[in-house]
Amino acid sequence: MSADRRPVGVVLAGGLARRMGGGDKALRLLRRRPMLEHVLDAIRPQVRAVALSANGDPGRFLQWGLPVLADPLPDHPGPLAGVLAGMRWARQRFAGAELLLSVPTDTPLLPPDLVARLMQVRAQTGAAIACAESGGQRHPVVALWPVALAETLAEALAAGVRSIEAFAAPHGVVGVSFAIDGDADPFLNVNDKSDLARAARLLG
Predict the structure, then answer these.
(1) Secondary structure tally for the chain: helices H, strands E
(2) Phi and psi, residue 89, nearest 5°
(3) With contact defined as beta carbons under 8 Å apart, do 66 and 52 qualify?
(4) Where are the domains of the chain?
(5) Which of 78, 85, 117, 130 could form a disulfide with 122 if both were Cys (CB 3.0 to 4.6 A apart)?
(6) DSSP 8-state class, residue 16
(7) Contact (Cβ atoms closer than 8 angstroms) between residue 142 and residue 108
(8) Is this structure's pTM higher than 0.85?
(9) Contact 130, 119 (CB under 8 A)
(10) For 3-203, which CATH class?
(11) Residue range 115-168, pLDDT digits in tens
């Protein structure tokens, strides 16, 4: 895959780790490294550049040298706002950028062929949006988006749309299935301390 064909990536780090005692999930330690580092290790080889979608003081992410994109709407409207921020950044920063990869900050086991497979199936089917699936479950936050949908998404958010599925469906979505190896789901979502322990075991 040539460099100019790779999508731009955005890591969605807006959620609070309430079930793990609060704070930033991105900074929660997993095998002695912040969870964000595991996500970045997985996606950096697959994208042109990465930004972080997060609100609050961007200085807490200074060590990673990433652009930190605040929600373009008030009152924390959810992951779609982070996708919009990523789309606008991709369009402004990279001439000709066509696609944005979104991933959450609490999925540390992302597969190394994520982008390649999303792009392949999207091209084969002609769907506008491709999102990951595993074990019969769709993961709408792990998705490949056309940057050209930015203003349509802005209008939807302004109209009160908050569900990724509700926004994506009218534009055409294809699910791309990834295998689960034993209990190693590549899209394991770390929501609590038991998930954190499971991810640490699988990474080890």
Answers:
(1) 6, 9
(2) -65, -45
(3) yes
(4) 3-203
(5) 130
(6) B
(7) no
(8) yes
(9) yes
(10) alpha beta
(11) 999 999 999 999 999 999 999 999 999 999 999 999 999 999 999 999 999 999
